[in-house]
Write a sequence for this structure.
Protein backbone atom coordinates (compact mmCIF):
# COMPACT_ATOMS: atom_id res chain seq x y z
CA UNK A 1 0.00 0.00 0.00
CA UNK A 2 0.94 3.62 -0.42
CA UNK A 3 2.92 5.31 2.34
CA UNK A 4 3.62 8.95 2.75
CA UNK A 5 7.12 10.32 3.28
CA UNK A 6 7.74 12.11 6.54
CA UNK A 7 10.79 14.12 7.49
CA UNK A 8 12.78 14.24 9.52
CA UNK A 9 12.78 10.58 10.49
CA UNK A 10 13.87 11.48 14.03
CA UNK A 11 14.52 14.59 16.08
CA UNK A 12 16.39 15.22 19.32
CA UNK A 13 15.64 18.65 20.76
CA UNK A 14 16.02 20.61 23.96
CA UNK A 15 12.96 21.31 26.05
CA UNK A 16 11.50 24.68 25.08
CA UNK A 17 12.56 24.50 21.44
CA UNK A 18 10.10 24.59 18.57
CA UNK A 19 9.67 21.58 16.28
CA UNK A 20 8.74 21.35 12.62
CA UNK A 21 8.02 18.24 10.61
CA UNK A 22 6.42 17.60 7.25
CA UNK A 23 4.75 14.97 5.19
CA UNK A 24 4.69 14.61 1.41
CA UNK A 25 2.75 12.49 -1.01
CA UNK A 26 2.82 11.78 -4.72
CA UNK A 27 -0.98 11.86 -4.67
CA UNK A 28 -3.44 14.64 -3.99
CA UNK A 29 -5.39 14.32 -0.77
CA UNK A 30 -8.46 16.18 0.48
CA UNK A 31 -8.02 15.21 4.12
CA UNK A 32 -4.87 15.33 6.23
CA UNK A 33 -4.66 14.03 9.79
CA UNK A 34 -1.84 14.19 12.32
CA UNK A 35 -1.46 11.56 15.03
CA UNK A 36 0.85 10.94 17.98
CA UNK A 37 1.72 7.44 19.11
CA UNK A 38 3.40 6.44 22.36
CA UNK A 39 4.89 3.01 23.07
CA UNK A 40 2.30 0.28 23.49
CA UNK A 41 -0.59 2.51 22.53
CA UNK A 42 -2.62 3.24 19.43
CA UNK A 43 -2.24 6.51 17.52
CA UNK A 44 -4.08 9.46 19.06
CA UNK A 45 -5.55 12.13 16.81
CA UNK A 46 -4.01 15.60 17.19
CA UNK A 47 -5.31 17.71 14.31
CA UNK A 48 -7.55 17.23 11.25
CA UNK A 49 -7.36 19.36 8.08
CA UNK A 50 -9.92 19.47 5.27
CA UNK A 51 -9.09 22.38 2.96
CA UNK A 52 -6.01 23.30 0.95
CA UNK A 53 -4.17 26.13 2.69
CA UNK A 54 -6.00 25.54 5.98
CA UNK A 55 -4.03 26.33 9.13
CA UNK A 56 -5.34 24.75 12.33
CA UNK A 57 -4.07 24.94 15.90
CA UNK A 58 -4.56 22.70 18.91
CA UNK A 59 -2.79 24.25 21.89
CA UNK A 60 0.93 24.35 21.12
CA UNK A 61 0.41 22.38 17.92
CA UNK A 62 -0.23 23.97 14.55
CA UNK A 63 -0.75 22.09 11.30
CA UNK A 64 -1.17 23.24 7.73
CA UNK A 65 -2.75 21.64 4.68
CA UNK A 66 -0.37 22.39 1.79
CA UNK A 67 -1.62 24.42 -1.15
CA UNK A 68 -0.62 21.70 -3.60
CA UNK A 69 -2.68 19.20 -1.57
CA UNK A 70 0.32 16.90 -1.66
CA UNK A 71 1.87 17.92 1.62
CA UNK A 72 1.19 18.92 5.20
CA UNK A 73 3.21 20.40 8.03
CA UNK A 74 3.10 20.10 11.81
CA UNK A 75 4.73 22.52 14.20
CA UNK A 76 5.06 22.16 17.96
CA UNK A 77 5.99 25.26 19.90
CA UNK A 78 7.87 25.37 23.21
CA UNK A 79 8.33 21.59 23.43
CA UNK A 80 7.96 19.81 26.75
CA UNK A 81 9.05 16.29 27.83
CA UNK A 82 5.56 14.83 27.35
CA UNK A 83 5.74 15.68 23.64
CA UNK A 84 7.98 12.62 23.23
CA UNK A 85 6.55 10.06 20.84
CA UNK A 86 6.18 9.20 17.19
CA UNK A 87 4.18 11.56 15.03
CA UNK A 88 2.36 10.21 12.01
CA UNK A 89 0.61 12.02 9.20
CA UNK A 90 -2.26 10.39 7.35
CA UNK A 91 -3.91 11.42 4.11
CA UNK A 92 -7.10 10.44 2.34
CA UNK A 93 -8.63 11.32 -1.01
CA UNK A 94 -12.09 9.80 -0.88
CA UNK A 95 -12.35 10.03 2.87
CA UNK A 96 -12.43 6.27 3.12
CA UNK A 97 -8.93 4.84 2.79
CA UNK A 98 -6.29 6.59 4.88
CA UNK A 99 -2.59 6.26 4.04
CA UNK A 100 -0.06 6.78 6.81
CA UNK A 101 3.37 8.30 6.82
CA UNK A 102 6.58 6.66 7.95
CA UNK A 103 6.61 8.62 11.20
CA UNK A 104 8.83 11.19 12.91
CA UNK A 105 10.28 10.13 16.24
CA UNK A 106 10.61 13.03 18.68
CA UNK A 107 12.85 13.02 21.72
CA UNK A 108 12.78 16.02 24.06
CA UNK A 109 15.80 16.48 26.31
CA UNK A 110 14.93 18.19 29.62
CA UNK B 1 -17.97 2.28 24.92
CA UNK B 2 -15.96 5.43 25.30
CA UNK B 3 -13.18 4.33 22.97
CA UNK B 4 -12.21 1.61 20.52
CA UNK B 5 -11.57 -1.62 22.41
CA UNK B 6 -9.35 -4.40 21.09
CA UNK B 7 -8.80 -7.88 22.47
CA UNK B 8 -6.54 -9.60 23.16
CA UNK B 9 -3.91 -6.96 23.81
CA UNK B 10 -1.22 -9.60 23.29
CA UNK B 11 -1.33 -12.93 21.50
CA UNK B 12 1.52 -15.39 21.15
CA UNK B 13 0.93 -18.31 18.85
CA UNK B 14 2.83 -20.93 16.94
CA UNK B 15 3.40 -20.96 13.21
CA UNK B 16 0.50 -22.59 11.42
CA UNK B 17 -2.13 -21.82 14.06
CA UNK B 18 -5.39 -19.90 13.60
CA UNK B 19 -5.87 -16.53 15.31
CA UNK B 20 -8.83 -14.22 15.88
CA UNK B 21 -8.50 -10.59 16.90
CA UNK B 22 -11.54 -8.63 18.04
CA UNK B 23 -12.44 -4.96 17.73
CA UNK B 24 -15.31 -3.16 19.45
CA UNK B 25 -15.65 0.30 17.87
CA UNK B 26 -16.94 3.51 19.39
CA UNK B 27 -20.70 3.32 19.77
CA UNK B 28 -22.48 4.82 16.76
CA UNK B 29 -19.47 4.73 14.46
CA UNK B 30 -20.46 3.11 11.19
CA UNK B 31 -17.03 2.83 9.59
CA UNK B 32 -14.41 0.41 10.91
CA UNK B 33 -10.83 -0.08 9.77
CA UNK B 34 -8.12 -2.64 10.36
CA UNK B 35 -4.47 -1.66 10.04
CA UNK B 36 -1.25 -3.58 10.60
CA UNK B 37 1.81 -1.89 12.09
CA UNK B 38 5.26 -3.43 12.00
CA UNK B 39 8.07 -2.19 14.21
CA UNK B 40 9.31 1.21 13.10
CA UNK B 41 6.63 1.60 10.44
CA UNK B 42 3.43 3.53 10.05
CA UNK B 43 0.08 1.75 10.07
CA UNK B 44 -0.63 -0.18 6.87
CA UNK B 45 -4.23 -0.39 5.65
CA UNK B 46 -5.82 -3.84 5.58
CA UNK B 47 -9.61 -3.54 5.26
CA UNK B 48 -12.42 -1.05 5.72
CA UNK B 49 -16.06 -1.77 6.66
CA UNK B 50 -19.03 0.46 6.09
CA UNK B 51 -21.75 -1.11 8.22
CA UNK B 52 -21.69 -4.88 7.78
CA UNK B 53 -20.01 -4.96 4.41
CA UNK B 54 -16.33 -4.77 3.52
CA UNK B 55 -16.17 -1.64 1.37
CA UNK B 56 -12.47 -2.05 0.60
CA UNK B 57 -10.36 -5.13 1.36
CA UNK B 58 -7.54 -4.28 -1.00
CA UNK B 59 -4.99 -4.18 1.80
CA UNK B 60 -5.40 -7.78 2.93
CA UNK B 61 -2.05 -9.39 2.09
CA UNK B 62 -3.38 -12.78 1.02
CA UNK B 63 -6.28 -15.19 1.43
CA UNK B 64 -5.11 -16.28 4.88
CA UNK B 65 -6.50 -13.00 6.19
CA UNK B 66 -10.24 -12.46 6.54
CA UNK B 67 -12.40 -10.06 8.51
CA UNK B 68 -16.09 -9.93 9.38
CA UNK B 69 -18.49 -7.48 10.94
CA UNK B 70 -21.79 -9.37 10.98
CA UNK B 71 -23.93 -6.90 12.90
CA UNK B 72 -22.24 -3.68 11.87
CA UNK B 73 -20.54 -3.16 15.21
CA UNK B 74 -17.92 -5.60 16.51
CA UNK B 75 -15.42 -6.88 13.97
CA UNK B 76 -13.14 -9.91 14.00
CA UNK B 77 -9.92 -10.21 12.03
CA UNK B 78 -9.11 -13.84 11.31
CA UNK B 79 -5.70 -15.13 10.30
CA UNK B 80 -5.32 -18.72 9.16
CA UNK B 81 -2.10 -20.75 9.07
CA UNK B 82 -0.14 -17.98 10.73
CA UNK B 83 3.41 -17.28 9.59
CA UNK B 84 6.26 -15.57 11.42
CA UNK B 85 5.92 -12.61 9.05
CA UNK B 86 2.41 -11.99 10.39
CA UNK B 87 3.92 -10.79 13.66
CA UNK B 88 2.89 -7.16 14.11
CA UNK B 89 0.52 -4.91 16.01
CA UNK B 90 -2.97 -5.05 14.51
CA UNK B 91 -4.78 -1.77 14.99
CA UNK B 92 -8.49 -1.17 14.70
CA UNK B 93 -10.02 2.26 14.13
CA UNK B 94 -13.54 3.57 13.80
CA UNK B 95 -15.03 6.66 12.19
CA UNK B 96 -18.41 8.30 12.58
CA UNK B 97 -18.74 8.67 8.81
CA UNK B 98 -20.53 11.99 8.60
CA UNK B 99 -19.75 14.34 5.74
CA UNK B 100 -16.47 16.19 6.28
CA UNK B 101 -15.74 14.25 9.44
CA UNK B 102 -12.81 12.10 8.47
CA UNK B 103 -11.13 11.40 11.76
CA UNK B 104 -10.14 7.85 12.62
CA UNK B 105 -10.07 6.89 16.28
CA UNK B 106 -7.75 4.01 17.11
CA UNK B 107 -7.71 1.30 19.72
CA UNK B 108 -4.55 0.31 21.55
CA UNK B 109 -3.92 -2.59 19.21
CA UNK B 110 -3.43 -6.32 19.46
CA UNK B 111 0.20 -7.38 19.41
CA UNK B 112 0.55 -10.69 17.57
CA UNK B 113 3.72 -12.75 17.90
CA UNK B 114 4.07 -15.86 15.76
CA UNK B 115 6.83 -18.17 16.96
Amino acid sequence: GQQLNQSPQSMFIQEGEDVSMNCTSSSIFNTWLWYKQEPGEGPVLLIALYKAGELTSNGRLTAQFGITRKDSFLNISASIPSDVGIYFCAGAFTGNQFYFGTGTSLTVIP
Amino acid sequence: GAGVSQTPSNKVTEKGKYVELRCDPISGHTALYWYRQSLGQGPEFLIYFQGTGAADDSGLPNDRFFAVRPEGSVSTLKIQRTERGDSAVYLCASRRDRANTGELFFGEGSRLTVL
